[in-house]
Amino acid sequence: MDFQTPAGSVMTGAQGKKGSGLLRGLAVIEAVSASSEPPRHSDLMSRLGLPKATVYRLCRQLVDEGMLQYELDGGRLLP
Q1: Which of 16, 19, 15 is CA-nearest to residue 5?
Q2: Most buried among 10, 26, 63, 77, by the most CB within 10 A?
Q3: Residues 22/46, Cβ–Cβ less than 8 Å
Q4: CA separation for the pair 76, 70 (Å, rounded)
């Protein structure tokens, strides 16, 4: 699967495998940080072209590791 970072570049892993988990996670962090307002999962899905389950999983992992956080209402992500 090809998908683009918010900056518009296509992500390819070190082994030539497109869309590695690490690159996807970095793309999520970049997209959240670059957003003018805190994005929802659906915003990230459309911006990055990733499936719903992938976006939810990556966001949960990034929140668990302290790299992202949810707003108090739990619906939007913050860097």
Answers
A1: 19
A2: 77
A3: no
A4: 6
- The answer to whether 63 and 70 have CB atoms below 8 angstroms apart is yes
Rounded CA-CA distance 21/54 in Å is 9
47: tokens are 């911006």
- The pTM is what? 0.76
pLDDT in tens, 25-67: 999 999 999 999 999 999 999 999 999 999 999 999 999 999 9
CA neighbours closer than 13 Å in the CB half-sphere of residue 31: 30
* Long-range contacts of the stretch 59-64 (C-beta < 8 A, 24+): 59/28, 61/25, 62/25, 62/28, 62/29
- Joined together, the tokens standing for residue 20 give 């590695």
CA atoms of 18 and 12, how far apart (whole Å):
4
